[in-house]
Amino acid sequence: MTVVRLVLEYDGRPFAGWAAQPGKRTIEAELAAALRILLRRDVSLVVAGRTDRGVHALGQVVSYEGPLPSLRSINALLPPEIAVAAAEVAPPGFSARHDAVSRSYRYRLWTRRALSPFQAGRVLWWPHRLDEEALHGCAAALVGEHDFRAFTPSQTRHRHFRRRIRRAAWRRHGDVLEFGIEADSFLRHMNRILVGTMLETASGSRSVEQFAELLEGRPRAEAGRTVAPHGLFLVGVTY
Asked: Does domain 102-238 have CATH number 2.40.50.140?
């Protein structure tokens, strides 16, 4: 059976996340419906990263067994918030999830005192004082393997909390301050809690050393708040 690999971009704001849910609008449901019309059959979708409500994607990867769609045809059937950027035949047995080596995310802050209408909904507006050296110190502490128990909700289905961070860095581009991170996989809400805790650190609420101690498996209550989803993007997946 032919295995197809799709690369998706989407604006996550109108959706209740990736995964299909009864009575809710989701990216998976929209893509499955479009493929059902185009291929005249149902296909089982495998996704590299199950993004939450409101989270965007620039390089989400999906695989399924079935015919290869044309980009023009599949995009004509999708809502304007979702686009298939690439479609190709994958190697036999390819799985978008299980064959992934790492995932990369980016969280964007808008630091100007006035929010730009061209950035609204795609950044977290943060016109507050920030110690950017503290942000860099936090990012440096993340690289390597750590226990991220403090950075996921207490009520969770996760059984293993150790993750290996390949890369983590803050970079400024004018009024935009971006946090980029690459890891083998992520816990639920992990990136958003990391950013919230780093912002608290950069605002003087805790030291970089105290932030680093959270990576030793501390309880969720000791970490910071979960920032809004609309600043987060799944940038890409490595195979």
From this structure: no
Tell me if 3-90 shares its fold with 102-238. Answer: yes
Rounded Cα gap, residues 190 and 227, in angstroms: 10
Mean pLDDT of the chain: 96
- What is the share, in percent, of the chain residues with pLDDT greater than 90? 97
Q: Write the DSSP string, 136-154.
A: HHHHHHHSEEEE-GGGS-S
CATH class (in words) of the domain with range 3-90: alpha beta
Q: Mind telling me the catalytic residues?
A: 52
How far apart CA 233 and CA 142 sit, in angstroms, is: 19
User: What would the pLDDT profile of 148-206 be if each residue is shown by its tens digit?
Assistant: 999 999 887 777 999 999 999 999 999 999 999 999 999 999 999 999 999 999 999 99
pLDDT at position 133 is: 98
Which pLDDT belongs to residue 72?
A: 97
Cα 16 to Cα 49, 54, 204, distances in angstroms: 14, 7, 34
DSSP alpha helix (H) spans, the chain: 27-39, 71-77, 132-142, 190-202, 208-213
What are the residue ranges spanned by the domains of the chain?
3-90, 102-238
For the chain, how many residues are written?
239
Nearest to 237 by CA among 141, 150, 166: 166
Q: How many degrees, rounded to 5, is the angle at CA 183 between CA 124 and CA 98?
A: 115
Query: Is residue 105 a known part of a binding site?
Result: yes
- At 17 the pLDDT is 97
